[in-house]
Amino acid sequence: MRLHGALALLLLLCVHGAEAGGDGFVRVQGTRFVLNGNPFYANGFNAYWLMTLGADPAQRGKVTSALSQAAGYGLSVARTWAFSDGGSSNALQYYPSHYNENTFQGLDFVLSEARKYGIKVILSLVNSYESFGGRKQYVEWARQQGQSIGSDDEFFTNSVVKGFYKNHVKTVLTRVNTITGVAYKDDPTIMAWELMNEPRCQSDLSGNTIQSWITEMAAHVKSIDGKHLLEAGLEGFYGASSSYRSSVNPSGYQVGTDFIANNQVLGIDFATVHSYPDQWLPSWDDQSQLRFLGSWLDAHIADAGGALGKPLLIAEFGKSRKDPGYSGAQRDALFGTVYSKIYDSARSGGAAVGGLFWQLLAEGMDSYGDGYEVVFAQAPSTTGVITSQSRRMQVLARAFARVRKAERAQQAPGKTGKRGS
Q: Tens digit of pLDDT for each residue in 158-200?
């Protein structure tokens, strides 16, 4: 029987809330995420705008709406920005180590609402791009303090800039939520920190610059917070350490990152990959893009499990309605391809542990649309694909949990029938 409307959302929310496990921290065991000792699958979404709208009392309802609807459809993880650097009155960090308390309270609100609806949150700490300030703003701040800097890529090497970033990391991680009273570094609602959204360094395609930066910053994060998981924010492009995979990259995409080496850094707990064949291969037809997507994901799932021995999260994927010849069926096919790769891997004990589509919007947010947006009420077909994935990943999690419970019972004292003398 198919359920509709509020009843369906309520029942799904109850199921999801029970499975989310409340206040536990998400951990890594081998190539799996676990929560309270049971497998945890990250079927979720990106919503970079949550803090911005959370800081505006007139818009806060959209945060609640998005999170409550997402939970109702069984989604378990949201990825969003914990940065907004300079350039606007509602920026989070308007100058190094100077913060807008109202905007920070917007992020407090996001975390409190996510906790209410049983959704774990991945917080990204800086942008590689100019949007919301990013590397360019950090470099400009350093220039204003007398640093001679030639390129935005010196974000990764200049000691003053790195100091700005480290201070931001410390400020966010030690922030005490004004609503819950819990320090971010102690808040199990946060699933993981992300060092940077899509780091790139075109001036050093060897990957050495970003490798050194990830190594330094991962150690910095872990020195402050040993409870949460950490990931680098990579798109997944292969580099010098895996020349045998060079043909997997879309043509022309060498950006100074190295999927294998970067994710081998001590302190990086799981790997990420992003998937945008419509952006990377715009001249290819839709079916060719889907074939590329399948190969792209297969390679990363294999390498996460083999070369890395870590879980893999498909942290961004989507299909733009602005693409020539776009149809909703094309988007559903792309979502279906990603979800099938995740499910097949997870079911067989592989490294893929979840996927986060780009991006979820609440109703009434037309100005935030970038072509990739999903508004549940306006996309019933895609919503059905998303919900189906949530359900089958929940079933899989329950099945693995039963196996683990049986194994623990078998190993418990007195279960073997033998008595000590």
A: 999 999 999 999 999 999 999 999 999 999 999 999 999 999 9
Q: Give the chain's mean pLDDT.
A: 92
Q: What is the 3-state secondary structure (H, E, C) of the chain?
A: CCCCHHHHHHHHHHHHHHHHCCCCCEEEECCEEEECCEECCEEEEECCCHHHHHCCCCCHHHHHHHHHHHHHCCCCEEEEECCCECCCCCCCEEECCEECHHHHHHHHHHHHHHHHCCCEEEEECCECCCCCCHHHHHHHHHHHCCCCCCCHHHHHCCHHHHHHHHHHHHHHHHCECCCCCCEHHHCCCEEEEECCECCCCCCCCCCHHHHHHHHHHHHHHHHHCCCCEEECCCCCCCCHHHHHHHHHCCCCCCCCCCHHHHHCCCCCCCEEEEECHHHHCCCCCHHHHHHHHHHHHHHHHHHHHHHHCCCEEEEEECCCCCCCCCCHHHHHHHHHHHHHHHHHHHHCCCCEEEEEECCECCCCCHHHCCCCCECHHHCHHHHHHHHHHHHHHHHHHHHHHHHHHHHHHHHCCCCCCCCCC
Whether the predicted pLDDT of 1 surpasses 70: no
Task: Over range 302-307, report the average pLDDT.
Answer: 97
- What CATH code would you report for 5-410? 3.20.20.80
Give me the pLDDT at residue 16, please. Answer: 40
> Does the active-site annotation cover 316?
yes
Domain ranges of the chain: 5-410
Annotated catalytic residue: which of 19, 113, 154, 316?
316
Q: Quote the pTM value.
A: 0.92
pLDDT tens digits for range 326-358 = 999 999 999 999 999 999 999 999 999 999 999
Annotated catalytic residue 101: no
- Which one of 194, 198, 235, 373 is the catalytic residue? 198
pLDDT at 414 over 50: yes
